[in-house]
């Protein structure tokens, strides 16, 4: 769990470097305050603190802001990323029941009294702590001034007092200011006991977080996962192996955390320089999964651009280094790319797809046996992939629709309140 949170923090810093480690600092204050003032179980604390780490995951919907702009944004007008983040947690995480914490974490303190949500206490705690963690970046940071601001609101006072009590006992602000908080925070995540299934769910959540930077990357991930699973079934692998291959395929582009968005979303052919940057994602995938400890899918996920003749990347591996399972993912990656439609290109027709695969097979770049299976089952394979992806695509469509609906509702309320 610790490694997943570390990667998440790195990702958040990448898309909004104006407040480095902001989510990490918020989570530390949230964790220590709740631990000191409440009776939550360790399992419940882990869930709540994971939500805190994801509280600004919707921020990549906004432009990168300067520190001052971010502070004003945090206090005044942050409906967009709060809604996006809450819906992400609701639809694409194992923490669905906690999405209200993110949805309302920027509620104005004047509205705390009318706030009606299952995790009202956690919302108010997070609101107070988020404001403090943002303000602490300023050289003229004044905790007393912030506390005075919140004391105007009766509904905030009990939670404010609990934070003050925890801060006085544990020197929380001092730990943030001298950066001595990280070891404590990550020790906490290290001690959380998660089943293999839970770790996979959190890893998939992290993967979706990164994929959502780019819609085309998201669509590619779900189709390569489906192609890999179905091809593995056609090839007669055991159910456990099929599951492992599919998970490896799902995680294959997690290294794109390092790829600039303008390259991921470029509507056309990449330049040689851009392609060199793009290619780095495969090695990044290897490093990330190694750090997480996902050795069982390390090769499946990170060898997807290797070729049997040694012409691939990132390692230039050859036939003897590439298992049948890995070759299945390699061909699935190619299939996903060729059959995808983009704003700048249509999906390739069957004849062209098979021609390219057979040419690559003849050049000894990809596995001829798997290409033969693709050719034999092509129409059925394409139909099954379509059916297999339908649920997640429908969920994604619902996610986008609900996001726009909630954003419109929040904006209308904000407009009325200011007129």
Layout of strands and helices, then pairs:
Blueprint: H1 2-15, H2 22-37, H3 42-53, H4 67-76, H5 79-92, H6 99-103, H7 120-135, H8 143-150, H9 157-170, H10 172-177, H11 182-191, H12 196-211, H13 215-234, H14 239-250, H15 261-264, H16 272-292, H17 298-302, H18 324-339, H19 350-362, H20 368-417
Radius of gyration: 24 Å
Low-confidence stretches: 62-77
Return the average pLDDT rounded to an integer.
Answer: 87
Work out the number of β strands: 0
By DSSP (H or I, 4+ residues per run), the number of helices equals 20
Q: What sort of overall outline do the alpha carbons produce when their principal axes are compared? A: elongated
* Residue fraction in strands: under 5%
> What's the helix-strand series?
HHHHHHHHHHHHHHHHHHHH
Separation of the first and last Cα atoms: 47 Å
Largest sheet: none
The total tally of domains equals 2
Helicity range: 55-70%
By helix and strand content, what is the structural category?
Answer: mainly alpha
Descriptive report:
This protein is mostly helical and 419 residues long. It folds into two domains: 2-195; 213-399, Hypothetical protein af1432, CATH 1.10.3210. It is 67% helix and 0% strand. It is built from 20 helices and no strands. The chain has helices at 2-15, 22-37, 42-53, 67-76, 79-92, 99-103, 120-135, 143-150, 157-170, 172-177, 182-191, 196-211, 215-234, 239-250, 261-264, 272-292, 298-302, 324-339, 350-362, 368-417. α13 (215-234) runs antiparallel to α14 (239-250) and α19 crosses α20. The longest helix has 50 residues, at 368-417. The two termini are 47 Å apart.
